[in-house]
Prior knowledge:
Blueprint: E1 2-7, H1 9-12, H2 19-33, E2 40-45, H3 48-61, H4 68-89, E3 112-115, H5 124-134, E4 139-144, E5 149-150, E6 162-163, E7 165-166, H6 168-175, H7 189-198, E8 201-206, H8 210-217, E9 225-227
Parallel strand pairs: 1-2, 1-4, 2-3, 4-8, 7-9
Antiparallel strand pairs: 5-6, 8-9
Helix pairs in contact: 2-8, 3-4, 5-7, 6-7
Amino acid sequence: MVRVLSVGGSIVVPQQPDEAFLRDFAAHIRRWLSVSAERKLILVVGGGGPARMYQQAYKNITDNTPSNDEADWIGIMATRLNAQLLKAIFSDICPNPVVYDPTAVELFSGQILIAAGWKPGFSTDNDAVLLAERFSAKQVINLSNIEKVYTDDPKKNPDAKPIDSISWEQFIRLVGTEWVPGKNVPFDPVASLRAQKAGIQVICAGGTDLNNLDNILNGCPFKGTTIG
C-alpha cells in the first residue's frame, strides 16, 4: 500500500523550518505507518519561502526579465534542501537517498521515500503524480496552506466559494495549462493535465491540520477538495 503526499514547502519552511509543525507531522506520519509494515509513504516536498525569496531576488537583480528555467532551478534547489531535512527526520525508516528524478526511481526498501524537485517546467506536484504512476497509487494528497480549492482567489474576490469536489476538466479551466515558476495555484497545471490523463485523483487539503490528514489517510470524512 503506497500513498503519495505532495507537501507544500510553505507549510514545511514558510520562511525558516517550522520545527513545531515538523515535530507533530513526523509523529502523525509515524503513527499511521506503525499500524502495518506494508504501509509505505512517498513524501514530495516543495520549496516554500526560501524558493520564493531567492526567486524574487533573482527577478529583482535582472530587472524583472528573468529566465523561467533559471528561476525554476532556484526553486528546485530549495526543494532539495527541504527534502534533505525530511529525510534526516525520518532517517530510520527512509534508507533511500532523496529522489531527484521520479522516472528513474526503483523500489524503496523503507516505509518512507522522500522526493524533491526534478527539472524546470513544472512544480513538485508533477513529480508526485509521476511517482504515483510509478507505484500504482490512484491518489495524491496535496497538502498546502489552503484548506480547499475556491472558485476564485478568496484574497482578491470576497465572493469566491469553496469547492468540495470538482472534475479535472473544471479544475484545469480554473488554473489554466501553463506553468510559471513560483505560480501560486492549488495544484500545478502541468501536474493536473498528467493526473487527468493517468486517472489519478487529487485531494487538496490544509497541511497544518494533522488530524484532518489522519482522516484522509484512514479513509474517514475530511475537510478538503477532491479533484477528479
